[in-house]
Specification:
With 190 residues, the protein is of the alpha/beta class. It is built from eight helices and five strands, in the order E-H-E-H-E-H-H-E-H-E-H-H-H. A five-stranded parallel β-sheet has the order 3-2-1-4-5, with helices on both faces. Helix 1 crosses helix 6 and helix 4 (82-100) packs parallel to helix 5 (118-132). It is globular, with a radius of gyration of 18 Å. The structure holds iron/sulfur cluster. Iron/sulfur cluster binds next to helix 4 and helix 7. It is an enzyme of class 1 (oxidoreductase). It comes from Brotocaccenecus cirricatena. Pathway: tRNA modification; tRNA-queuosine biosynthesis. [4Fe-4S] cluster binds at residues 8-9, 83, 86.
């Protein structure tokens, strides 16, 4: 049995793939991440997955969409609550693609991350499944997260340092930015 597995990045996919294959389910990886910016970051994550998939005999569908402008437009109304919109964009497109191409179910590597809003992800996927008439294969992949990340490091994968959007990159440096702002004007002489 196959399932269409939305894949946010190669490192997160490692333990998801292992778990599904142990269950006798073959994941078909679906790259669709218009939330990842800037372009070099998008490319690094995509290319890592494109090298990994054939190495483990996994089919990969790359749906290109470097969506900087559309994504920012979609979330700019409520940047602090952008993740719900981001989940919707990616999971609804995965469900749509699964239904259109005859997959019996879909899932996502996002369910491995302890940093995502798991319940909101699940709710969004269930709504997408209902809307497109395709089954959502729910798995809580989180217990495998650490081991998967460790294996990804050992394989020499590109390991990203922030979730994906430029706002999450800002979050990564929040303390440093706040420190900088304590001295908002600097005059540098010789
Ligand atoms: S923080 Fe991550 S999940 Fe949230 S909007 Fe940005 S890329 Fe999407």
């Amino acid at each position: 049995m196959e399932t269409l597995m939305h894949t946010c990045c190669a490192p997160c996919s490692v333990s998801c793939i292992r778990q599904l294959r142990e269950e006798g389910i073959e994941p078909v990886s679906f790259w669709y991440n218009p939330n990842i910016h800037p372009y070099q970051e998008y490319k690094a994550r995509r290319d890592t997955l494109m090298a990994y998939a054939p190495a483990i005999g996994m089919k990969l569908i790359v749906r290109e969409d470097y969506g900087l402008r559309d994504f920012c437009r979609a979330v700019c109304g409520d940047i602090d609550h952008r993740c719900g919109r981001c989940y919707h964009i990616r999971l609804w497109e995965t469900a749509r693609y699964a239904a259109e191409h005859g997959y019996g179910s879909f899932t996502s590597t996002l369910f491995v991350s302890p940093y995502q809003n798991h319940e909101l992800l699940r709710q969004t996927a269930e709504e997408a499944a209902e809307a497109y008439g395709v089954a959502f294969l729910y798995r809580d992949f989180r217990p495998g997260f650490r081991a998967g990340q460790q294996e990804a490091r050992e394989r020499g994968f590109y390991m990203q340092k922030y979730c994906g959007c430029v706002f999450s990159e800002e979050d990564r440096y929040r303390k440093q930015i706040d420190r900088d702002l304590k001295q908002p004007e600097k005059i540098i002489t010789e």
